[in-house]
Amino acid sequence: MNRLAHEASPYLIQHAHNPVNWWPWCPEALEEARRTDTPILLSIGYAACHWCHVMAHESFEDAATAAVMNERFINIKVDREERPDIDQIYMAALHATGEQGGWPLTMFLTSTAEPFFGGTYFPKEARFGRPRFVDVLTAVSDSYKSRADIVTGNVEALRQRLDTRQDPGELPADAPLRAATQLAGVMDPVAGGTRGAPKFPNAGLFELLWRAYARSGETSYRDLVLTSLNRIAMGGIYDHIGGGFARYSVDERWLVPHFEKMLYDNAQLLSLMADAWCVTGDPLYRARSQETVAWLEREMAVDGLFAASLDADSEGEEGRFYVWSRAEVDGILGPDAARFAEAYDITEAGNWEGSNVPNRLAAAGLGDEATEAFLADCRSRLLAAREARPRPGRDDKALADWNGLLVAALARAGAAFDRTDWLDLAETTYHVAKQRFGVGDRLIHAMRGDTRVDQGFALDYAAMIHAALGLVAAGRLPDGLADAYRWVETLEAHHTAGHGGYYWNADDAESLIMRPDSPQDEAVPNANGLMVKNLATLWVMTGDDRYEAIARRILRAHARAAAQNVFSCTSLFCGQDQLDRLASVTAHDAPTLVMAARRSGHPAVVALDAPPTNHPALQMAPPEGTAIVCRAGVCSLPLADTKALTDALWQAG
User: Fold this and answer.
1) Which member of 113, 310, 394, 579 has the lowest number of beta carbons within 10 Å of its beta carbon?
2) Eight-class DSSP state of 355
């Protein structure tokens, strides 16, 4: 075993028996590189990553390849989910070379950890237009020894391109609507999602379009979101047998998934499905939400929290756990098989590489109640049979940011669907997360069992604040505001950048070659954008203008970056929309109206049991059984029925 054997990360442990002399990212590895003036081979991936497994099996488990790596490099392996700061720095470096990013990320660094060359997956033998990995290793190593001028030039060029600091700017008031209009142009109006393949369930993009619908009343924005959610919910990217959404679809129809399942995708889609159901009443969204929460509880729960991901591979094959032959379905369902197979596209020839990915893309939506009951019974029998198969690996580390996103989603869905059990689950998970990730006023990022990653990142705070505010907005967690106050102060004290945004790392964290402060989203929202949304909600909940001031400071800090890269900064635009358009509902002994507000499906509404200090509603004395809607400091007359309240919330403009 190499040095990874004692790490907490399941991804690192997967490589503990490689013949490669792997180091984890640690001061000792960096010091060894400096002492010996040896270049660093940095390999970054995650446990559910299919191509990471491929490169490991081909190269890292191969003694001859490992011998070249060990002779010529200090080899460092990083779990991108455990150290997103390191991943962000070196992925940005790869992008700066003009290469498309992805995982595994393979970067070559100087002995002082400065990047000078890189790529993603390199095959053991030349294919896909990519060179043989050993040839890359020898060429890079030889260049490092004999062509110092080239290496130094690359280092300097990348350093300059990684320095993306910009002067503050201003986003116009209609920037969220402009951004949504621009992004609507890249959407697929038939299949949903962005045009072409692969297709990702881009939750931030869908949220921005939903907010544009709420802001403008233009139904084309709504329809793009609903089309996307419908196709995702009916496509093979959804696990129709066991529940839960896969990471992305490799085709443009949402038919064939890349079979890994990530906690963050399911959290964000759960929240969107809840809002879509509130507006449309489509039973599809309720069904997928129920099935997804059931999957989370059945397969992802770990020590009161939720695990990071499920692998795409089992028995050495991608998707093997999830696909079916027609003969298997016939053997399990007997006389019911033909009807089920017709509904779920199960054929003798298969719909993917000779096997079948269950899907309902041929249907416009769910069938009648009797049909759905029949299909549910068939699915339960198939699920029971599937449980006997060798399972994909589970990355059972728990992450503060991803668990925070899930808690917020469970709170929103629980309120929308009137599921007190989901609200209970959200609140219980929050308390466990607060206890296990909390260290005084600080948060840590990750844990597995009793092993903890002590460093906390800005998104950990943003997501846990989001969770606390989501529970408060759902009528739960009386001490949630106090938690949010405390974590905002920690962010302000330890993460504030000179330009006004937030650094990923705290000021007392390990020193890296740079302190990342990118505002760009990845598959999860960026901490800066999510904090604008959080601060807007705190401002409305408390009436404290300081929170508005901080939110606008963050927006100014990243205004130019957002304007230049709309697609990658949707969370900032969503945050701006929240800041400018958030409506509060305050009721006087009117629980039905509070419930109606929480089930409005509007993305910028918060229902309060009582108006806070300095809230404009305090100037009014509404009669019992009524509610007041306040937006941008202007309040409505008292409203006594749910339709009038909903209409007031959805008033465009």
Assistant:
1) 394
2) B
Tell me the two tokens of residue 445.
């990022």
Both tokens assigned to 395: 């990355």
φ, ψ of residue 392 to 5 degrees: the values are -65, 155
CA torsion angle 550 551 557 561 (round to 10): 170
pLDDT score, position 622: 74
Residue closest to 415 by CA, chosen among 269, 230, 597, 172: 597
Mean per-residue pLDDT, 457-485: 96
- Residue carrying the six token digits 């709420």: 214
Question: What mean pLDDT do residues 119-129 have?
Answer: 91
| Three-state secondary structure call for residue 558 | coil
Q: Are 74 and 40 a contacting pair, CB within 8 Å?
A: yes
Say if residue 545 is exposed, middle or buried (CB neighbours under 10 Å; 0-12, 13-18, 19+): exposed
Query: Are residues 141 and 73 in contact, defined by beta-carbon separation less than 8 angstroms?
Result: yes
Rounded alpha-carbon distances, angstroms, from residue 25 to 32, 68, 278, 631: 12, 20, 46, 48
What per-residue confidence (pLDDT) applies to 236? 98
pLDDT of residue 455: 86
**Are 107 and 42 in contact, with CB atoms under 8 Å apart?**
yes
> Helix %, strand %, coil % for the chain, to 5?
50, 15, 35
Residue 613 pLDDT level (bands cut at 50, 70, 90): low
- The answer to whether the beta carbons of residues 196 and 593 sit under 8 Å apart is no
Span 383-404, mean pLDDT?
Answer: 97
* Local structure of 432: helix, strand or coil: helix
Distance of alpha carbon 289 from alpha carbon 609, whole angstroms: 27
Q: Does the bond joining 104 to the residue before it have cis omega, within 30 degrees of 0?
A: yes
- Distance from C-alpha of 410 to C-alpha of 423, rounded to nearest angstrom: 6
Provide the CA 223 distance to its chain's centre, in angstroms: 23
CA–CA separation, 34 vs 32, rounded Å? Answer: 5
Say what the pLDDT of residue 84 is. Answer: 95
What's the token pair of residue 605? 């509404």
Place of tokens 């016939």: 330
Gap between the Cα atoms of 497 and 507, Å rounded: 10
Main-chain dihedrals φ then ψ at residue 302, nearest 5 degrees = -150, 110
List Cβ neighbours of 239 (8 Å cut-off, separation of 6 or more).
245, 246, 261, 295, 322
Query: pLDDT-based confidence at 612, cuts 50/70/90?
Result: low
Cα 380–386–389 angle (5° rounding)? 165
Q: CB burial class (10 A; 0-12, 13-18, 19+) of residue 146?
A: exposed
Give the Cα separation of 101 and 91 in Å (integer).
7
Specify whether the CB–CB gap between 2 and 24 falls below 8 A: no
Give the H or E element holding residue 451: strand 451-453
Strand ranges in 85-160 using DSSP code E only, listed in sequence order: 105-109, 115-119
Nearest CA-CA partner of 390 in 333, 313, 330, 466: 313
User: For residue 501, is pLDDT > 70?
Assistant: yes
At 143, which amino acid appears?
S
Which segments of 298-424 are extended strands (E)? 301-302, 305-306, 309-310, 313-314, 317-318, 394-395, 398-399
User: pLDDT tens, 185-242?
Assistant: 999 999 999 999 999 999 999 999 999 999 999 999 999 999 999 999 999 999 999 9
Instruction: Using DSSP bridges, classify how beta strands 305-306 and 309-310 pair: parallel, antiparallel or unpaired.
Output: unpaired
pLDDT in tens, 57-98: 999 999 999 999 999 999 999 999 999 999 999 999 999 988
How many residues in total does the chain contain?
Answer: 653
Both structure tokens of 570: 């949707």
